[in-house]
Task: structure prediction
Amino acid sequence: MSLTELAVAATKQDAPTPPDRLSERLMRTRALSQDLARPLSDEDQVVQAMDDASPTKWHLAHTTWFFEAFVLSQHLPGYPRFDERFEYCFNSYYESVGPRHPRPFRGLLTRPSGDEVRAYRAHVDEALVKLFAHDVPKEALSLIELGINHEQQHQELLLTDILSLFASQPLKPAYRDDDVGVPADEVAPPAFTAFEGGLFEVGHEGAGFSYDNEGPRHEQLIRSFKLANRCVTNAEWITFIKDGGYETAALWLADGWTLINAEGWRAPLYFEPNDGSYGQMSLLGFRPVDPGAPVTHVSYFEADAFARWAGYRLPSEFEWEHASASVAERGQTLGSGHLRPQRAPNETGLSQMFGDVWEWTASAYLPYPGYEPARGAVGEYNGKFMCNQFVLKGGSCVTPEGHVRRTYRDFFYPHQRWQFTGLRLAADA
Result:
């Protein structure tokens, strides 16, 4: 099965999912992670280029530890842990589980070896098969569903973290070496769709998986607004650069202005001058920037400054979710096989709402009214990060198939830009 086929197959689901279907989806998800790692050498899989990233080997082991710690140890009688020491090595941020290896030093974990991590995955996968040979408790089924979605998140992180690593290499290697040219045609200027204001319901409700931070569903007052039909393009961002966008203090929030000057930012992450224009490191190697494709690898600070320069603003997460109700939950995600953002179709209706790039919103990442985190250690999953971060919507070109939905709330700190993050313009109507 190809990477694209695996990406699609791993996430097809019904709700509620019968145990046999859940088991099948679990194993396909587990297989996809290993398939994503297959183009990489063992040397590639052990290194992290920066503190925010994690090595591929760690992602493979951590997602395995999740099932061992939260599912098998609790719900499979007599389960023998593969190695008790791995809990310290591969826990991430679960304080209630115990101490863990510091995140900035995950790239120093040369041991366990790649072969040992692959054996660890095989051990846990075999135990998961044994678990499904019996009646699986409802609680375990819920944790497995969470574990599948958790591993999908790490599949995206695995790819963005490899891009971070490969961008730091002088040879500029490609994760996948495709011969992809740059289209010559121009992209039409953005068109805006108007939405009437009112009191609307937002957030997840009903059947199907969602994270605890997507609910409860509640009423939200939204004033009349208009939203661009597509994401901001590289060509538009280059105009911003040439117009002195990174040198004009009035465009920037104070913390953003301090940051870009301290770090010397004058373009999106991975941008480099190239034959009078720009090239950008991608999972396909260093390539000329496609002027018509969505700009990506920009921080919240940069997105906010660009919107101000353009005479617009970023949408709130509620505006974005309300507007997205008019389009299907599909787009250029991992299953498309592109591995980088694609041009929007030349049409005036809303496009690119799902896939291509995660879209920054103006909304702080905060709990919804009546929010309660999940019980136990898994309750540390989302709620404890509701401080100093902003919400992103929509998914990216490396988000696994089926993992996007209009109520999904991704979140990052305003300075972070190694993910496939971009923006869409909005304004009051």
The chain is about 30% helix and 10% strand.
